[in-house]
Structure formats: C-alpha cells, structure tokens
Amino acid sequence: MKAGDRVLLFLPNGAAFLRAWFGASTLGAVIVPLNTALRGDMLQHAIRTADAGVIVCHSELADRLVGLDVGRLEAAVLVGPDVAPELPVGTQGEHVLLGAPADVAALPQPWDIAAVLFTSGTTGRAKGVICPYGHIGAAGAASHGYLEAGDRIYIYTPLFHTLALGAAVATLASGASMHLAPSFSAPTLWADVEAAGCNRLVGLLSSITSYLAASVDPQGRAPFDFCMMSPVTPETAAFAARQGFSYFAAFSMTEVSVPLLTPVDGRVFGSCGRPRDGIDARVVDAYDNEVEVGAVGELIVRANQPWTLNAGYLNDPAATLAAWRNGWFHTGGRLPPGCGWQLLFRRPDQGRDPPARREHLIPGS
User: Fold this and answer.
1) DSSP symbols for 192-249
2) What is the pLDDT of residues 83-127, one digit of tens each?
3) Which end of the chain is more exposed for a tag (fewer CB within 10 A), N or C?
4) Peptide linkage before 231 cis (omega within 30 of 0)
5) Which residues of 237-254 are buried (b: 16+ CB within 10 A; e: fewer)?
6) CB 25 within 8 A of CB 17
7) Contact, 65 vs 76, CB < 8 A?
8) Which residue, among 254, 275, 263, has the nearest Cα to 365 in the 3D structure?
C-alpha cells in the first residue's frame, strides 16, 4: 500500500479499527469506512465506488462479500474469529495489523485526503464524500474543541460516521483520552459512562435524548457535565438542568464541518444554531439569490479557511458539480432565515421522486 491508495474498513468500533486507521494514515493511504449495516446492492455500490484494492473486514461480516462484484478489490485482512467463508479475494489474518510501526513517509497536510465517508443515502444513493484532513480536523474542533488534556470522552457512535471520527481526532489533538464503546445501550448509558471513567460524552442525539429524559433517575446526576444534545426542547433543557450538564446543539452533514452551532445552554427551542466562526451561510432560492427574511430557502455554506469543507464526491463529478455551485456548498437543507436557523427538511436529489413525507432534520443530526 502506498500514499493515496484507498483502503476499505468494514469493522465495528474497536482496537482493530483504530489500528487499521492509524496504520493506513501513517502510510499516507485514505480510509473508506463502511457502515456495518450494509449488505447486498448497497454494499456492492460502496465497494465499487471506493475502487480500493484492500479491505480490512471483521470475519463475522465477511460473508456479505460473497457473490458481490467487488471491482478491483484483491485482498482482505480478516479481523476476529478465524471463521470466514471462502472469499473471491486473497485473505490475511489480523496479525498484519499488529506488526512494528511503519515509518512515517510525511506528515499529512490539510489538503491531503484523510478519508472517504459515505452519506447515509436518505435522499438518494449513498455518495462517497472526499474529506481532507483539514475538513475532519475542523469538524472535530467545532463539535469537540472543548476537550482538554484531562478529559475522557465516551464515544458510542460508530467510527464510520463523521461524528465519532471527528471526536476521535479532537481527542488526539487535545491530548485527552477516549473510551470507544463497541455498542450502545440506552438503558445503561449513564452507568456505562460512569464505569468508563468519562466526564465527556460524544453527544445525545435524536430520540435518545427524549428516551433518556423519560427513563433515567429524575433525582440522579449525569456522569458527564457537557455534551452536544438534540433536540433542544423545553423538556430536554429541563432534563439537562436536573441532571446537571450543559449542552449545545448543532447542524452538520458528512460534507460540511459543523457549520451551525447554538450557544451553550441555549433556549431557542428547535434551533440548530447560527454560523460558527469561519463559516459564511446564506438562505437562497433555486437560483442562489438570497430569499427575504421569513421565506423558506436552501441553506448554502462556505468556509474562509481552505480545505475545511469536503473536496467533492468520489467518482461522481455530476453530484460534485451540482452541490458545489457558485462557490458555495448546497446542503439541501430548507429553512427560514433569521433567529434560530431551524431546519425544516432536506430536499430529495434532483431527478428523484419526492418522498411521501418530508424528512425533518433534527438539530445536531
């Protein structure tokens, strides 16, 4: 493997993911983490789009590769129990991740590509987002830049997602430590965080927040004192106050580095914040003209530091051209400008039938 090569990571959270990630980065290679829920045509699409020669795969996921058109994939490193089906590529064991550290060819620069992260595919077929080091670093700094050397963060979201990947980068940059949970259990989250000795949490997202607000001991105290939280409602804000932690909300996508943030303990309910330092944001019509205050338009963003947003979509120039228009990245998020910057929904990809219902974006999603 050499600088610029892509390597697929089909792995759950764990030490093997970190070894493969750090080892590939040391060599100047580009990681392409895959959602561990992928299978069939969606998995084949991701593998073909990545156009990689090597995959590091958990042996319990390896059977999903059988029968797929894997393109130019020619080697698999299997992690975990030594039980796997016969694969259409050569295989090696986990020992290749445990060798002596490789020599660092060169320190990465902000414009070097760190990863290709696939979108969730909620508005069309998943796209591979080309993420420079500057992009992932900016995302981590925006959402977890509060970490200090004495902090320990509990990461339970998967590393194939930008939230966890950015949190890990921010942890390394600050000299803090992290507990990488292999799985997530809402009923035991408080106890799990406490047992791991963590004072920070990667975030409370979406329905998890509402569930916890109704299920944890109302007289108890959270084992952490600060995190990202969504949605911010009167109920969840009161929950945070009872449990003794502060919060903020945000808006982000795989393509952008957390461009909108709320104040700490903000009480503009439903808000996903305002543009953070370094980000310009506008709300525009279909022709990129700014809409009147109160009218619904599309959120577009740009950064004043180079390489801190995505560098396009891998092997998809048409999608790149459509998203990067007139010097701005078009998020597809629809919102009325003004106080709160409350996103309403994501528009479907052009050329696709509109969904039966609009997809509401929860702040921080």
Assistant:
1) HHHHTT-SEES-B-THHHHHHHHHS-TT---S-SEEEBS---HHHHHHHHHHT-EEE-
2) 777 888 888 888 888 877 777 767 889 999 999 999 986 656 899
3) N
4) yes
5) bebbebbebebbbbbbbb
6) no
7) yes
8) 254
